[in-house]
Amino acid sequence: MIDFTPSPIAFSIGSLDIRWYGIAYVVAILAGAWLAMREARHRGERTDIILDALIVIAVAALIGGRAYNVIDQWSTGPDYKDHLLQIILPPYSGLGIYGGLFTGLLATIWLARHYKVSFWRWADIMAPCILLAQVVGRWGNFANQELYGPPTTLPWGIAIQCQYRVAQYACPAGSDPTATLGQHFIPLFFYESMLSLLGVLVMLWLWNHFTARGRLLIAGDVGLLYFVWYGVERSLLELFRLGWDWTFFGVPMAQIVGLGAAAAAILAILIRHWYVRRRPIAAAGDEAPPVPQAESEPTPAA
Predict the structure, then answer these.
(1) 297 burial level (CB within 10 Å; 0-12, 13-18, 19+)
(2) Domain ranges within the chain, ordered by starting residue
(3) Of 92, 91, 109, 93, which Cα lies nearest the Cα of 101?
(4) 190-217 pLDDT per residue, tens
(5) How confident is the model over 76-91, as pLDDT tens digits?
């Protein structure tokens, strides 16, 4: 059992609290940028646009993620409906991944048009980078003592202080807010982090072995696979989670969006392959010329 309960605040500068969640967000962006730079160089794409694009996508994802979280927690947690300024003022209680993905996707489409590069090839590059960012970012949830499941006796169960419990697992009235009462919970944040890491390795392996002229996958398939992988991953983990507020006929929106995105991505893959079979020249347009061996950096297979 893991009894360590971290403080959400890493350090303070005067009256400004620097939170582990924010640090994890920054480190996650840097990790994703590193992989994007590495993969773009290996695949013969431009690397000079990555840092500029990174700022646009990060800001867009931050806005979308915040908006999703506000809707999800509208009447619980910070109670935004009665404290509207908390929507834009720190400290933030969290970000909703699906909101960030939606606005980040819109930003990526705009950037691809702006820089006149292939959206589908860059989707293949960005998909494992986004998952890698999630691998890192989910540890911010550990610092916030959130994204956990029901009580457990598993050796890797984590302690959660009373002040961070959802209503379903609330401590008895009068309990010390910092007490854990010897209870431990399923670390869903850790499960999601590890499943996302596995997804990174799978996507890199698939691109290296199956995306090329005449092979199984075409440009964009790996990018679409992200929505399948993460949509199913998150939907399964939601089965163990309580405390969400945004539901539709009792079903968490995270599951509806996740499974809906997975189904839409599978359909898009099938339609695009049908189109390519009818017009093979369309697939060739997404292929970039091979990079000279001396300039490429091989990506290890998982």
Answers:
(1) exposed
(2) 9-284
(3) 109
(4) 999 999 999 999 999 998 888 765 568 8
(5) 555 666 666 565 665 5
DSSP 168: G
- Give the SS3 label for residue 185: strand
pTM recorded for the entire structure: 0.82
Question: How far is the CA of 47 from the CAs of 6, 42, 84, in angstroms?
Answer: 38, 10, 41
Run of H or E residues at 282: helix 280-284
Q: Which residues of 104-130 are buried (b: 16+ CB within 10 A; e: fewer)?
A: bbebbeebbeeeebbbbbbbbbbbbbb
Looking at the DSSP bridge assignments, the partners of residue 247 are: 252
Residues with Cβ within 8 Å of 33's Cβ and at least 6 positions away in sequence, in order, are: 50, 51, 54, 129
What span, in angstroms and rounded, lies between the C-alpha atoms of 62 and 188? 22
pLDDT at 269 exceeding the cut of 60: yes
What is the distance between the alpha carbons of residues 132 and 31, in angstroms, rounded to a whole number? 7
Chain Cα centroid distance, residue 266: 19
DSSP lists the bridge partners of residue 13 as 16
Residue 253: band (very low, low, confident or very high) from pLDDT cuts 50, 70, 90? confident
